[in-house]
Amino acid sequence: TTGEAQYTDDIPPMANELHGCWVLSTKAHARIRSIDYSKALDMPGVVDYIDRNDMPSAEANKFGPPNFDEVFFAEGEVHTAGQAIAMILATSANRAQEAARAVKIDYEELPAILTMEEAIEKESFHPVYREIKKGDTEGAFRDCDHVFTGTARMGGQEHFYLETNACLAVPKREDGEMELFASTQNANETQTFAARVCDVPANRINVRVKRLGGGFGG
């Protein structure tokens, strides 16, 4: 016994294995005029690409419970830098990454909200409001001897993962079955969305979780 754990990315390569790399938006808010994959597809080792047009239905491209208001692949417009637009499939991870950078996207840039102040000014808020109130806050401030006001700012924070997100998809020979090795805390949700994207019943998708090198809601 060595105590060494095997994570998803440690699984030995399989025959005819392909690697996927996201094509991500470089704009904060823009309309996609056109996408040219030709330069990427001409690279040796690049097999194909997938985007919203490969989804079996418009509903299959949606996720993000409970409202299902997010999309796997951008649908004509991007709303943040780094939003997924497509995925390149290639015979190696390095070639997939290189090809993803070679995809040419023509954007029509749209106004973007980049600060809290801009969001307040434009009243750009999530439609769901939750408040927790206890006691008389206004009265407490009114009766204070001194009241100090100011602004505190904090940058975004992330946990330091032992592994990044990874998934190995192994198609089976019968009835559209597939086995997924995924670094997920929600195997049921992974099964549900994979079945929708592949347009098969959920019982044909088998999700296995090897180890988790990150969690904490990250």
From TrEMBL:
Limits of the Aldehyde oxidase/xanthine dehydrogenase a/b hammerhead domain: 2-111
Highest taxon, organism lineage: Eukaryota
One GO MF term: iron ion binding
InterPro entries: Ald_Oxase/Xan_DH_a/b, Ald_Oxase/Xan_DH_a/b_sf, Ald_Oxase/xanthine_DH-like, AldOxase/xan_DH_MoCoBD1, AldOxase/xan_DH_Mopterin-bd_sf
Record key words, sorted: 2Fe-2S, Iron, Iron-sulfur, Metal-binding
Cofactor(s) required for function per UniProt: Mo-molybdopterin; [2Fe-2S] cluster
Family: Belongs to the xanthine dehydrogenase family.
PANTHER family attached to this UniProt entry: XANTHINE DEHYDROGENASE
UniProt-recorded name of the protein: Aldehyde oxidase/xanthine dehydrogenase a/b hammerhead domain-containing protein
